[in-house]
């Protein structure tokens, strides 16, 4: 019998968390490290003669940051596509990602040396964003004054409508390592992970208004803590101790499937912000 917990809707805002409050987590080495690979690529591109006069950085005002109304979305090509987009944004509300901003409160975009396209980078670890900022400051004088790391709600990223710009997520390398470890337990020998890992358990469900939802966590330790607390509350064996109870998926795959709308497999998926323990935070919010 799965562990079930009450779940208030709409999603409660997670408690604010300063960098000093964020739990430290050792980052085991694994090939490749997403941030290290990115920094290496940028460093190589910046010293390449093929760049010519092409600037390494481009800047664009994000509608959400500037306070302007988002650009109108194109008419959906498939019936139900707009409701699906709304559902995705609702489920991603409260999940923080970290981007680089200049002194004019504009998001900073990195230009690809070969494609000519601009990339907006969003890190799932504030530490990774800080490291990226330091790397950029060392390479570009314009980044040295007023540049900073800013927090953006993940659902707002999908509202940004910028021509010629692709957005790329940089996953937390420690969570990628844990995702690889979990997959290897099930026989997957790959040394990489295709995207941002999210963790779930077959034994944990959330209930709201007579509906059941599957919580997906951005940090494996948050899932383990929730399972541990819920099992104690309901006096059941901790399901995390059972082999294969924890599964890992790529966030991008889930979102793309939800956008497509051809399958109802992910209709009950909800995303839990890092540091948010459903067995304690949700009961507090419901009180």
Protein described:
Strand 4 (107-111) and strand 5 (118-123) form a beta hairpin. Helix 1 (34-46) packs parallel to helix 4 (126-139) and helix 3 (81-92) runs antiparallel to helix 8 (251-260). The protein has 2 domains: 34-46 and 54-66 and 80-170, Trna Endonuclease, Chain: A, domain 1, CATH 3.40.1350.100; 174-286, Trna Endonuclease, Chain: A, domain 1 (3-Layer(aba) Sandwich), CATH 3.40.1350.100. Mean pLDDT is 71; it is low at 4-32, 43-80 and 281-287. The strands form 4 sheets. Strands 1-9-10-12 form a 4-stranded mixed sheet, with helices on one face. The protein has 287 residues and is α/β, with parallel strands linked by helices. 32% of the residues lie in helices and 22% in strands.
